[in-house]
Amino acid sequence: KTWWNGLDPIWQAIFRNATATQSEVPNALELQRILDLREIEITPEFPIISIEPLTSLTWLERLTINNQGVSDLTPLANKEFLLELNAQNNPIASLDPIESSTLLELLNIENTQIKDLGPLSKMNNLVTINASGTPVKSLKPLSNLQKLENLFVNNTNVRSISPVENIPALKQLKVYNTKVKKRAVESLQQK
Predict the structure, then answer these.
(1) Which H, E and C letters describe 111-150, residue by residue?
(2) Alpha-carbon distance 36 to 29, whole Å?
(3) pLDDT (tens digit, 9 = 90+) per residue, 129-169?
(4) Is the dihedral of CA 36, 41, 42, 43 positive or negative?
(5) What is the rounded CA–CA span in Å between residue 15 and residue 33?
(6) Please, which residues have CB within 8 angstroms of residue 142's CB and are 6 or more apart in sequence?
(7) Given pLDDT bands bounded at 50, 70 and 90, which one contains residue 101?
């Protein structure tokens, strides 16, 4: 109850909405349902700039925080069960906090300030990455992600696709409006 009372009213509304809790102050069972949430989508009708309250959600698997003002993913550190993170259109600048989320399968960081994909280098379960519209320049950290099927890096400063050319699972690669030469794309298409 102390945790609940310390929450911002917007976060209280987010959690009530996510668990269909009707009461203003949840009872013990409802609080436990909130803490056990595995999936949460925070829509723009609930504007947030911090995801600090998510620190308490141990079992979180899927998080959508698109179109918010979130700049720091630190509350997601040690979220070992995280499978999906949709965080497009946020002022996030670093993926370092989610480096240990090695079960992650889907990452959408479109239109963020992420420059470095290095923290993803050991995320061997990643199937889809959308880093379109970011200042990313290098795909080198992704070169060993053998399960990667979908990679979207259009509208970036990526110059070379050679780091991902030999990923056997890669089915979809979008690199339009980048510095990748047309010849490199055509060569990969023929593989």
Answers:
(1) CCCCCCCHHHCCCCCCCEEECCCCCCCCCHHHCCCCCCCE
(2) 10
(3) 999 999 999 999 999 999 999 999 999 999 999 999 999 99
(4) negative
(5) 9
(6) 117, 120, 121, 126, 129, 148, 151, 163, 164, 167
(7) very high
